[in-house]
Design a protein that fits this description.
Layout: H1 2-26, H2 29-64
Helix pairs in contact: 1-2
Length: 66
Amino acid sequence: MAGIDDIKNAAEKAAGKAKEGAGNVTDNDRLKAEGQTDQAKASAKQGVTDVKDAAHGVADSFNDDK
């Protein structure tokens, strides 16, 4: 399931980067800020996904020891 989350987060980050770029080109500060916010949200979501993956890895290692 993490693979799907990774793809969604990467897509959201790319969309934010594009929005920020559009804001830079058009000199639109609001659009630029929205793009930066979208990227930050995607990075935070990816961090949560990474923590979940690590927790599953730890749980799996305990199950393997039995």
